[in-house]
Amino acid sequence: xENKPEFTIVAPVxxxxxxxxxxxxxxxxxxxxxxxxWELVLVDxxxxxxxxxxxxxxxxxxxxxRPVIFAxxxxxxxxxxxxxxxxxxxxxxxxxxxxxxxxxxxxELIARWREGYQVVYAVREERxxxxxxxxxxxxxxxxxxxxxxxVKIPQDSGDFRLLDRTVVNVMNQMREKHRYLRGMSSWVGFxxxxxxxxxxxxxxxxxxxxxxKMIKLAFNAITGFSFLPLQLxxxxxxxxxxxxxxxxxxxxxxxxxGSPVLMGQATTLMAVLFLGGVQLISLGIIGEYLGxxxxxxxxxxxxxVAESPEKE
Length: 312
Ligand code: UDP
Ligand code: MG
Fold this sequence. Notes:
Low-confidence stretches: none
CATH superfamily of the largest domain: Spore Coat Polysaccharide Biosynthesis Protein SpsA, Chain A
Order of helices and strands: EHEHEHEHEHEHHEHHH
CATH class of the largest domain: Alpha Beta
Radius of gyration: 26 Å
Bound molecules: uridine-5'-diphosphate, magnesium ion
């Protein structure tokens, strides 16, 4: 009897008791306009404020709501991952449960999906009700990530996005523990497009993303998609070694011309600088190998095929 829904909405929930009922109502109102079957997967990320019970109550009244309840708080990215695992729709929309991502925008995402795009990410054009600190750090963060990572992760787009079933299946195969879903969904490729939207203020409650969690997310983004931190030692090493060789030449010239400048300390200084540089380079080399080991351990698929002839 089980009919597969066309759309799955995935929303992570961590202590959102004040927003949850309103969120459900808005989603139902918007999704009913599509005229298709849909489901709402609510992932309770270890709430302690009664969100869990409320979620179960909503699900009892509306079987389209499917609660996945975590044993403790595992963090936003893991909660969304679980939502993707439980999703059954042909298109899956990830959205925050605090109504900062306006549910109406889902219809625009769906429209693009129907045109054939497989990843439709929502791009924040404006942010409302957030501190300048959050807006500033977020903006710096997106620019930094964009510069240092190989995959071009669209700037100013959060996890609010629509993913085609094909993309969800690929992402579900990537079981890396430190997850940066935006990066992963860019990394997979396929036909991607952005849709601009205005990020609203929170409906109720406060952000569950304190600075500590934001920094953790930034680290996951950088380490998950770039070796740059590991390679820094190499760059620094070459710089120091190069400079010390240059200085060595200068000293030799000084000695040959009989100048008393830097008398006595030069050899020690050179030895320390040169060795320091060599050590940094060696560290960098270890970093390169470590980076490669890390890449293997992540176990991402080597390639992702969008279309291919029959294998036989
Ligand atoms: N969230 C979660 N686990 C966490 C932190 C947040 O599931 O550990 C959920 C939260 O309930 C919300 C979404 O992730 O639905 C985004 O969090 P929040 O609104 O606090 O982040 P912000 O919008 O301030 O960046
Ligand atoms: Mg929010």
